[in-house]
Amino acid sequence: MALAAGLGTLALLAGLAFAALGPERAWGVFGPADLGAVDFARLQRRNSPNDALAAPPGFAGTARADVTSPVFALDARALRAAMARALAAEESLQRVDVDARAGTERYVQRTRLLGFPDTIDVLYVDLPDDHSTLALYSRSRIGYGDLGANRARLERWLARLTSVAPVAR
């Protein structure tokens, strides 16, 4: 009985501290929210189930994609602009890096309930005939698993993108 009361008190104090600090400062004990850039050509997927990859077939070396990225009927520059429109409605999303020369962007998005930070890398790829595609890699900063949150995010982002950008037939 005393152990249960002690654990309940500890949980209450942890909850109050989390509320007072906010998710960004509270989760900061695990390191910065932004995990840094990835090299899609040498991408190594994690051993834990807390990442997801969307890419065209055969694109990311030996890394297995969870979701297939479509080919779009516009160049990579226009695809980047379409992605900006598609992501405008995303909650708790911050763009933390852009490398126009490399065709990459990186974002940090926090989960709705507890504010867990996830890092999402995007690579825009020009294809012949003014077509393009993209690769997206989403990974969690905290926890062994993510309950499918990273894959769901990539599927949601691609659905929003295909609603504003023409997919090649």
Would you kindly provide a brief summary of this structure?
This protein is α+β, with helices and mostly antiparallel strands and 169 residues long.
Report on this structure.
By secondary structure, the chain is of the alpha+beta class. The chain folds into 2 domains: 1-30, no CATH class; 34-164, Fungal kinase associated-1 domain (TATA-Binding Protein). It contains 4 helices and 6 strands; from the N terminus they run H-H-E-E-H-E-E-E-E-H. The chain has a 6-stranded mixed β-sheet, covered by helices on one side. Helix 3 (76-87) packs across helix 4. The longest helix is centred in the first third of the chain and has 20 residues, at 2-21. The model has no long low-confidence stretch (mean pLDDT 86).
Total helical segments:
4
**Into how many domains do the coordinates divide?**
2
Backbone structural class = alpha+beta
Examine the secondary-structure arrangement and name the CATH architecture of the largest domain: 2-Layer Sandwich
Helix and strand pattern = HHEEHEEEEH
Helix content percent band? 25-40%
Strand fraction band? 15-25%
User: What's the CATH C level of the largest domain?
Assistant: Alpha Beta
Low-confidence residue ranges: none
What radius of gyration results from the CA coordinates? 18 Å
Largest sheet: 6 strands, mixed
Distance between the termini: 65 Å
CATH fourth-tier homologous superfamily of the largest domain? Fungal kinase associated-1 domain
Instruction: Kindly report the average pLDDT value.
Output: 86
CATH topology of the largest domain: TATA-Binding Protein
| Strand arrangement in the largest pleated sheet | 2-1-6-5-4-3
Note the overall shape. Answer: elongated
